[in-house]
From TrEMBL, chains A, B, C, D, E, F, G, H:
Source organism per UniProt: Knoellia locipacati
Start and end residues of each PurE domain: 101-231
Coiled coil stretches, renumbered: none
NCBIfam families: LarB
SUPFAM superfamilies the record matches: N5-CAIR mutase (phosphoribosylaminoimidazole carboxylase, PurE) (SSF52255)
Swiss-Prot/TrEMBL GO biological process terms: 'de novo' IMP biosynthetic process
Gene Ontology MF terms in the entry: hydrolase activity
The protein, known as: 1-(5-phosphoribosyl)-5-amino-4-imidazole-carboxyl ate carboxylase
InterPro entries assigned: P2CMN_synthase_LarB, PurE_dom
Pfam families in UniProt: AIRC
Length: 233, 233, 233, 233, 233, 233, 233, 233
């Protein structure tokens, strides 16, 4: 609970008030830092928010940040950490000391890497130990079957897959831990920008799968971090 | 080519002419008997067609036959074979002597049985040896993995699955034979009456899967029989 | 691990083998009992499976059971527990002694009760303490806000809602525990049989929400039980 | 009714007649000025229409104007007012003196600002007092709850939201005034370019919500201005 | 504010507490009585709620009530008013004395009558003067054009239409009052149970149209009553 | 213009005025009689309208009439003609003397017969010579190719097809006359109640195809009658 | 039949044979010249086809031609006529002498002009007299009502509309001639690239409307030319 | 089985391990070489994989390769064969000696050429004789009918079509061989990026059609190669 700046009184400046109202109560209320979704915001708005974050001093993630957003954020928070694949900026740059159980992020294919990496980094910045396994889709089952020990050691598993989206159901059938499934917008036309794997995952015939939005690595990493949180008491 | 009545000259009666035009050229042109899709036809119409089939004497399948259709067809063709699960009536009742390779029909769950059984019987009535394996969905992978020998012995494999529709892709990743995937309308709400497994199958990340219509066991059995047909020469 | 009959060697009879292949390895592999999805199965099939369950002696849930299914199951397992609202049959009738954290099931409206109750009972039969709160939808926010203590005491929260499906996002914004959201097929035409709340939940602007299939109380209860499982070591 | 140029006789030139037929009767018939939807029109067409507007002398709004449209319109109407965020050009530049009740425009997130601002300006140019509140989405309920007085003082409320689109229903549950909901195309993949919040809003379990098209700030501002119009008599 | 029983202290009995939590604060908070959506509730649940309504003594509407619901409600509230076409039960049976402006409900076709009548009665029970015009669809424009005076005298207009859903846009183009559009599930196959008129209405090229859910006469009547409410002095 | 009762002054009774407003101007304005769409109307309403039709004495068609509608209509118009397959009631029972060109109605399969027959009878009752050809789908191309003379003799062709909906495009590629395509709701699951053939027809790669609603034989027959109308000399 | 080059023997060169097979039989078979759909073809392919067209000497239209296509076509056919708004190239440049009835093309808004103009020019190049009316959408009904004479003089009417797509139904209710409706991809988000007006038009409650593909001015102009063709004999 | 490098022991370097896990067991398990789907991968990733392919020495296809991918792959595998139309890179550049039956690839239009060519080349690189026929869509039936001999000589037929997607059903009705149908994203708006031909093909009224994903020439060529494989024994 020594999280920097969380819940402390702080008054936003005018530039911020016109465009955003930071949820400065969030860490106190939920125990997790705030995230700023950059898509749809101008670079200038991202910069104003980043400046306020620096002023207030509370841990914050900036997700879906394009080059313009990143430049504006780093101008305000020069020591922030930026991961280009995951399109994520984190401030402060280092994750907190990990507690709770392990989060394992599994990507079905190489093309799912950006989303998987976003989940991985979010889980770490929210305080968990997190690992990544890539390109173990069901077209060659031996690849996932050879990872059984690693799968069974995790307290929460994020499975990222496009196309047929079949991997989360296969994984869920093999383990006791809950599986958070993330559909990606990777695939031929009838994947319909992620609709196909989304439906597959919602219809998983193995129980123990719950689904987040298409390409939403942030949401999956956040949910996994909550599931693997240290149990009070 | 000793198929009964195929291609022989025959003149339809008036009752038939008002409602249907049998494709009496089909066996000669394609080598497979005609099928009559009963859904949307009245029982009376099915009966008139069955009577014409009996007159003409050519092998015919009646698919998607409900109780009314069956009664009318059996009145005209008393020795026809009826399978209630598959909703299929076949005349003559016995399949021809099998030729070509083996067709294997695999059903992911018990609820997929009606469609799987339709595929099985159609493949047999079109002249193939055909077997059925039931309830080997991916929630318990060991079930399908224990069938590898049977899967690899088939020349064409039909895989029937509802819900996540993931089984065909898993099977295709294990064998050299082509897989015909049949989505079924089995599942919770977001299966959208078979749309979910249909999309999964179309997006299979393992190549070697092609898809037929939702619940279309007839089409799958027909396609598999064509694939496993004896190679000329 | 004293779960009755789990993983013990057992050989299915022929009647069963033709229609289903019980996943007798599941408890050993995953730690949770098997469930039989009755929809799409005949009453007779449900009865055959129930008889096998009784023979084998392992804990089993029968979900989506209609009157015909229930009659056939109870004929084979006379002491099984049946909940008509949840359409659930459980055998043995009593849940195991609860371990792990508490599961809280929240239903937005009275019409969501069948799904909510299915989640509740599944969580209990999978070994958790579970409670139910009904009719606290967002049209009158004070209803959910007055339950903050109860919400914050749970280790996993299931939120069941039809129509606008907005409740899970509101709940997730108030607590640290993960929220499993279940859309229901309740609502006017543009709810499209549950599609509207499904999309709402997938798009929750509060992180910490993951979604299961429409009306899938079983999947939600199972996932919540996994999340709230006792942490090993 | 001293609105400039409304309903006065006027004859369009040929350049205009080939591409558009201004609804010069609209103010007389409906009491609100005409608007020109620029998307899909060439810059040249926008310029021809702007020139005719200047000739005729009646108040007009140009919506969805990109840089090319704006340049052409300002060439014809140099004193027109242009708001880049809202993509709106208004002529004459100043709104009329406000009458009737107050319109309050509420944006769930910063990314909804362009649409919210369009609604705000349209309401003002149609003769209402209008205010704007930004970034009060349901992930942090305290933000909207702290605005209850402002919400209850408005005669019509426009609520703009993307993603889960849950804010209009929450607002409607708190006030007596009607809520016009505007879905935006902001969000992850399963928002489907605004379909998700559109459905959420149509399914609001709180009555008192009616919905306009995705990103249609113009329509919302117009509707709110009509609702908050001075009551005759 | 002399509305019966509104906001007075009242404690629900146990039978009610298990299934519903009446929003007894609603009239105080919003100024409009509560409504109970019967679809998806059992007749028994409707009866328990009706009994509580009678005890508490506050004005309540029961919408989408089928024969079973009606019987149970009337058993608890024998003097309630039931309109079979609108599937509405109102208690107390008489609407309050009307205040504010007039609501006009317009139905495009005879088949839209149940929804239109629901809107009409709801507007009356919420305290407005309300009239109904039927079968004035755009296939014969003279029918709606002959009603101009009646249309222009209303302060809020509800337009109910299935099929092409074009009538609301035509009406909005003729009047200054806001139009609440209600799509109905009436029409040939490509109306997709109301989706077609829903989209038409959302895309109305005449401003001044906002849309409620398919077949949602209740929501439209409620919204219209709010719009036409007396303006606080 | 000797059409019975068309355009003559006539005053509706009160029973009618509450539910419908007959378009008594239609024949004068458009030259074609009115049709009453029965679906969604009660039998009683159909009877009231039929009585008014009898009083007024103008030619009228009743479409989509179920058994209850038919009984009520025939009670009011005992000499009306009823075709059960087409679900059509016509009054007066005999079509007018045919003028103009020939309409040819082509049905791809037997299951399309109800819709095809509705188109056929409507074309006749609107004053055209009309013929019907059944079961000439593209699975056996020789069936349609053998009808080339009949196809080329028609001035308008209606093609009715479910499933793949491919027949209209094939026909259009063979003739100079315009083709009106009618998708039907016949087919396996992925026909989605007629959506599949609807899209096929809209995407016909042969020009000369325009499409009406799913199962809308009435609309197709009407359109074909207009196309084949006698050309004013 | 004096159409240049139609049906004359001609042998394609190799460059053409690899990419296209011109339907040189089309004019003889259908009476209308061929059209080449350029979208999806490379500029080079368009050039090769244009060269073959020039060699063969038969009238041809090139539709959906972008700048690259146009350059390549004009290189091969320097005297071809190009209309940039309609994206159409016609060769020979002049339409044939008009015969048959008049085609009237009506565009609801200025943004529908490209599609409307394509329909207009196609009708002319297929041998009809054709006129154009622009910006007469239903938001100001007086605009279309003032054109009644022009509408009633046409033998076929093409109505082009985006957004709500309501204009074709309004026009059809006013005239005896058949209406070909063309939805356009113009509008706010819930127009879904033309889906909304497409559905509106398919559901027109006025009979006498048939629909072609979204933005398909070519198909509409072709169909209208067929309808308005001179009647043989 | 003399396929280069297949199944031989090989250890991936670290650069590869971070992004992909080649399925080096695939040829042994399935008899067909691996393919690398480039879309969604960076050029750098494609280069790393190509380098590993070269090291390992096993036949590999790179599909959906854009200019960046191609450059990176050719840098690592300078003798690989690149086909720009098909967006395919193959290594080693020459296909193996053909065995089994012939694959015929049929493209409905010139715009379908890229997908058809991908299918053609894949079938060849997987060891089959394969031929291509272009622009024989159903708008001019004589084009496909003149190819009957070629169609009937093939052991597997791939039919590629956009727009109405009707060609596969027509072909299937003419031959005994199975037809693999590939919808393409070619067409006007209501083709919905390939959805229309996809549905057409799934609903083919001629049996003997199975469908792969939109624009998935690779999948079709692979499936056809499997169907036409030499029969063991």
């Amino acid at each position: 609970m020594a999280e920097p700046g969380a819940g402390e009184p702080w008054e936003p400046g005018e530039a911020l008030r016109d465009i955003a109202e930071l949820d400065h109560d969030r860490f106190a209320r939920r125990g997790y830092p705030e995230a700023v979704y950059c898509e749809g915001k101008t670079a200038e708005q991202a910069g104003v928010i980043a400046a306020a974050v620096g002023e207030r001093g509370a841990r914050t993630l900036f997700t879906r940040a394009d080059a313009g957003h990143v430049e504006a954020i780093l101008a305000a928070l020069p020591d922030a950490a930026h991961d280009a694949t995951a399109r994520l900026v984190a401030w402060p740059p280092d994750p907190p000391e990990p507690t709770g159980g392990t989060v394992l992020v599994v990507a079905a294919g190489t093309s799912d890497l950006p989303v998987a990496r976003e989940a991985l980094l979010v889980a770490r910045h929210l305080g968990r130990t997190a690992d990544l396994v890539v390109d173990v889709g069901i077209a060659g089952l031996h690849r996932i079957l050879s990872r059984l020990d690693q799968l069974r050691a995790a307290r929460a598993i994020v499975v990222v897959a496009g196309m047929d989206g079949a991997l989360p159901g296969v994984v869920a059938g093999l383990v006791a831990a809950p599986v958070i499934a993330v559909p990606t917008s990777v695939g031929y036309g009838a994947a319909f920008e992620g609709l196909a794997p989304l439906l597959t995952m919602l219809n998983s015939c193995a129980p123990g799968v719950a689904v987040v939005n298409i390409d939403n690595g942030y949401g999956a990493g956040h949910m996994a971090a909550q599931i693997a949180a240290p149990v009070p008491g």
